[in-house]
Amino acid sequence: MTAVADAARDWLTAGADWTPEWVEAAGMAELLTGGGTYGDLLAVARVAGEVASPIPAAGVALAAAMARSAGLAVEGLVVPAFPEPGDGWPVATRDGSGVRLTGSVAAVHGARWARHLVVPARCGDDEVVAVVEREQVAVTARAVLDLTREFDRVDLDTTTARVAVVSVDRAVEAHFALYAADAVGAAGAVFRSALAHVTTRTQFGKPLGAFQAVQHRCADLSVALAAADAAVRAAGAALDSGDRNACATAVSAAAAYSAEVCAEVAASALHLHGATGFTWDHDAHRHLRRVKTDAILGGTARWHHERLATLP
Fold first, then answer.
1. Widest CA span of the chain, in angstroms?
2. For residue 10, what are the CA distances in angstroms to 6, 48, 52, 148?
3. Which residues contact 132 (CB under 8 A, 6 or more apart)?
4. CB 24 within 8 A of CB 76
5. CB 233 within 8 Å of CB 43
6. How many CB atoms lie within 10 A of CB 201?
7. What is the pLDDT of residues 92-144, one digit of tens each?
8. For a tag site, which of 102, 165, 237, 259 has the least CB within 10 Å?
9. What is the C-alpha R_g of the chain?
10. CATH of region 2-165
11. What share of the chain is helix, strand, coil (3-state, %, to 5)?
12. Among residues 87, 83, 84, 91, which one has the least CA distance to residue 125?
């Protein structure tokens, strides 16, 4: 996983002016279908959060795997369109010789650049995977808290969807886990920046990090962040095991914990930067905004706690 993270860091850092063709050429769509693991997928998401990447790299890999498992061919850049936790799923209905897909997805990362969208939907009592061309749906740019990624609302009302009945349980769990991993990466980045600041910034003739109150706060944040990272890694292992109950439990535990802890770590790290952390030009607020957005799109701590209470 370390090698995957290192490669992802080099690739994502080089992609400031990325294009869909550049992502395709990198082969990100083959991460899961070409022998990679869900642990690898979460490693990519963690690094994306760390470097505040605008590229929907992990989402591309997940969407391609969903399409492949459903036997649906896709071309070009493909991204997943998952509803926010608690929102209703899009609905697929038989319409003459075709299938009509209706509904909306509030926030899709990368929709405006995609050629195809992969959408989990309901068709009667069945779970289905639907593939639609981006030109066949309404895509509207959204203003969100996160300044590092661009999200779009997707409104679906099309009869051109290709649909296959297939379980999407693991894909949904992976979607939740991706946001948890991204939050861990983003919180870790701003925390390391804070450590560097308190090591070099002096006050009363000594580094800020020499003061016991600052040391204790940094130690607490480091332990909390390590625990969140461990929870995300455990979620990746559960996803790779394929055990449905283990996946749901591990993923919601990681998502609930990271939603709370990563926000606390990022906010406290911003405070440790002092007045500099509150300036618009510093990256601290960008990582904090990203963490807060992850906690909404991947499910709030409360939502996952309530879900955990219902799991067997």
1. 79
2. 6, 11, 13, 18
3. 101, 116, 117, 119, 156, 158, 160, 161, 162
4. yes
5. no
6. 14
7. 998 776 789 999 999 999 999 999 999 999 999 999 999 999 999 999 999 99
8. 165
9. 20
10. 2.40.110.10
11. 55, 20, 25
12. 91
Q: What is the pLDDT of residues 52-100, one digit of tens each?
A: 999 999 999 999 999 999 999 999 999 999 999 989 999 999 877 678 9
- Amino acid (one-letter) located at 280: W
Pairing, β 116-123 against β 78-80: parallel
Dig out the tokens for 253 from the structure: 């535990």
For every residue of 106-161, DSSP letters joined together read EEEETGGG-SEEEEEEEETTEEEEEEEEGGGSEEEEE--S-SSS-EEEEEEEESB-
Per the structure block, which two tokens stand in for 242?
């394929």
Tokens 């309530």, residue located: 306
Give yes or no for a contact between 150 and 107, defined as CB atoms under 8 angstroms apart.
Answer: no
Name, in order, each residue with C-beta under 8 angstroms of 123's C-beta and a sequence gap of 6 or more: 91, 92, 93, 94, 99, 163, 165
E strand residue ranges, the chain: 78-80, 91-95, 98-109, 116-123, 126-133, 138-142, 151-158, 162-165, 202-203, 206-207
Instruction: Count the residues in the chain.
Output: 312
Q: What angle do CA 27, 28, 32 make, to 5 degrees?
A: 110
What is the CB neighbour count within 10 angstroms for residue 56?
29
In angstroms, how far is CA 233 from the centroid of its own chain?
Answer: 14
Secondary structure letter of residue 233 according to DSSP:
H
Domain boundaries, the chain: 2-165, 169-310
- CA atoms in the 13 A half-sphere facing the CB of 108: 30
pLDDT at 1 over 80: no
Given the structure tokens 């099309």, which residue do they identify?
158
- Tokens 């992802």 -> residue: 8
- The count of other CB atoms within 10 Å of the CB of residue 200 is 10
Q: Does domain 169-310 have CATH number 1.20.140.10?
A: yes
